[in-house]
Amino acid sequence: MGLVSIITVNYHQAALTADFLHSIIRFAQGKALEVIVVDNGATVDNEDVFKAVFPDLIYIRSQENLGFAGGNNLGIQHATGDYLLFLNNDTEITAGFIEKLRDELERHPDIGLLSPLILYHEDKTKIQYAGYTPMNYLTGRNSGVGTMDEDNGQYDHLTTETGYCHGAAMICRRKDLERVGLMPEHFFLYYEELDWCEQFKRAGLKIGFTGKAKIYHKESMSVGKESPLKTYFMVRNRWLFIRRNAQWPSTVIFCCYYLTVAIPVLLVKYLLKGKPNLITAALRGVWWNFTHSKNSKDLGIKR
Questions:
Q1: Is the Cα torsion angle 227, 184, 192, 262 positive or negative in sign?
Q2: How many C-beta atoms lie closer than 10 Å to residue 55's C-beta?
Q3: Which residue of 58, 83, 106, 132 lies most exposed, with the fewest beta carbons within 10 A?
Q4: Which parts of the chain have pLDDT scores under 70?
């Protein structure tokens, strides 16, 4: 059926990546696959640490922090597989996961990018991702399908078109990637996989979800900690995504909504919380879009 190249990006989480590699060894040893670890923004060389777990892996060290898309794109350059499987280093695969994903992709030639059912690692009965709704280009919002529902096998036999894939686990064919292009490096954090899905759609391919393959994600079930960096990129990239993917009438309406409703509400929330640093970060995210083109790769921060 062809070689599968697994690409994962490590960013100062060597122990977590080692655990990820152990799950590959446990469930996929002897399969037709290659494993590529991109050590992103690495201040030390972790090759020996990772190869102690998975001796045959391909280790790539980047002293510069390339972000999520940049790290994966670096891995793509070294991949030789017919299929490219992008997995977060905080995931744990399950039995038959790789074969099921690959087989479903081949059963559906109209699907260009496919994600599995994602369950929370801390509670393996709770669903994190079973697809996404389409984007509302007027508000820049969409919703997760099945999020926080109990996994009772309701998706076990389902493969369907969905709004977007989930960046924690995605697979595509090499031939499709070569036609569509690499992940967009304009975002650095957040929204890059959504933008990439839009690229696949414009190439005439569908975005797919399958419940026939499951993976566990160690991301917390609670709301993540707010930080100036997260706030900056969430504000910046939400607008940037709309600028890059919506038609101009929708973009104009979104801008009016974003600047007169969404951003003021966000600033008041931060003011009431007594977090002036987050107010500053949000305003910087807005200002970036006023001063940069939608194709600019200037992130507005030091890496």
A1: positive
A2: 8
A3: 106
A4: 1, 221-224, 303
